[in-house]
C-alpha cells in the first residue's frame, strides 16, 4: 500500500461508551474539578472538537459517567432490604457500601456521593440529582419498616453510608472501613425491632 493510500484510510470510529468508561475512572480518581478537558482528550485519545461533538461538553461527559456508575455500581438497595429484618438489612447495606467503596484503591468512595461536593455548581447539581434517587430508595425501604421513626432513622443510615464513602475517599484502609461498617451493623441489629414471625 502506498504512503498516500495509508494517509487516506479513515480513522476507526470513536467508541462513545468506551470513552465514558475511561472518563468515569478519571473523574472517580480526581473529581470533576480536578479533571481538565486536556486530561479527558488524552485519556480518550481524541481532540477537543471530537469530545464536544460526542458529549457536548466536559459537563455532559461527566453526567454520562455518573449515570453509568449509578446504573452499574450503585448499591442494590431494594435487593438488600428484600426478605431481611430492618436491622439485618441496614447492617448488610453498610457492609456492602464499605466493601464497594474500598474495592478499587485508585477509585475510592462513591463517585456520585463525592461528586455532590464538587465546586462546580452544575456538576454538583447533577450528582445531587442522581444521589437523590438512591437516597429515596433507601429512605422508602426504612419508612415502610419503621414508620414511627422512619425519617430520623433514614437520615442516620444515609449519613453513615455517606460517611463510609468519605472515609474511603480520604484513604481509610479497607480493613478498618469494613470493621467500622460491621460494628455499626451490629449496633443496628441489636437495637432495631425484628419483623414478627409468621
Structure characterization notes:
This protein is an all-alpha fold and 198 residues long. It starts with a helix and ends in a 7-residue tail after the last helix. It is 72% helix and 0% strand.
Radius of gyration: 21 Å
End-to-end C-alpha gap:
77 Å
Helix content: over 70%
By DSSP (H or I, 4+ residues per run), the number of helices equals 11
Topology order in helix (H) and strand (E) letters:
HHHHHHHHHHH
Main sheet specs: none
Beta-strand content: under 5%
Number of strands: 0
- Unreliable spans are none
Mean pLDDT: 91
| Class by SSE composition | mainly alpha
Instruction: Name the overall outline.
Output: elongated
Structure keywords:
198 residues, mainly alpha, 72% helix, 0% strand
Question: Would you kindly provide a brief summary of this structure?
Answer:
This protein is 72% helix and 0% strand. By secondary structure, the chain is mainly alpha-helical. The model has no long low-confidence stretch (mean pLDDT 91).
Lay out the secondary structure:
Blueprint: H1 3-8, H2 16-30, H3 37-44, H4 48-55, H5 58-73, H6 77-81, H7 86-101, H8 111-115, H9 121-145, H10 150-169, H11 174-191
Amino acid at each position: 500500500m502506498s504512503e498516500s493510500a495509508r494517509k487516506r484510510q479513515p480513522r476507526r470510529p470513536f467508541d462513545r461508551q468506551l470513552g465514558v468508561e475511561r472518563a468515569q475512572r478519571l473523574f472517580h480518581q480526581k473529581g470533576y474539578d480536578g479533571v481538565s478537558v486536556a486530561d479527558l482528550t488524552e485519556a480518550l485519545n481524541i481532540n477537543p472538537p471530537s469530545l464536544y461533538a460526542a458529549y457536548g461538553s466536559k459537563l455532559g461527559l461527566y453526567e454520562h459517567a455518573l449515570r453509568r456508575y449509578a446504573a452499574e455500581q450503585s448499591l442494590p438497595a431494594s435487593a438488600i432490604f428484600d426478605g431481611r429484618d430492618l436491622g439485618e438489612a441496614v447492617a448488610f447495606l453498610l457492609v456492602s457500601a464499605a466493601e464497594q467503596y474500598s474495592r478499587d484503591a485508585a477509585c475510592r468512595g462513591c463517585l456520585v456521593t463525592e461528586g455532590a461536593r464538587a465546586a462546580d455548581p452544575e456538576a454538583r447539581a447533577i450528582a445531587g440529582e442522581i444521589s437523590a434517587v438512591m437516597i429515596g430508595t433507601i429512605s422508602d425501604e426504612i419508612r415502610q419498616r419503621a414508620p414511627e421513626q422512619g425519617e430520623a432513622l433514614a437520615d442516620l443510615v444515609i449519613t453513615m453510608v455517606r460517611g463510609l464513602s468519605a472515609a474511603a475517599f480520604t484513604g481509610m484502609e479497607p480493613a478498618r472501613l469494613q470493621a467500622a461498617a460491621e460494628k455499626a451493623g451490629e449496633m443496628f441489629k441489636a437495637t432495631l425491632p425484628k419483623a414478627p414471625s409468621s
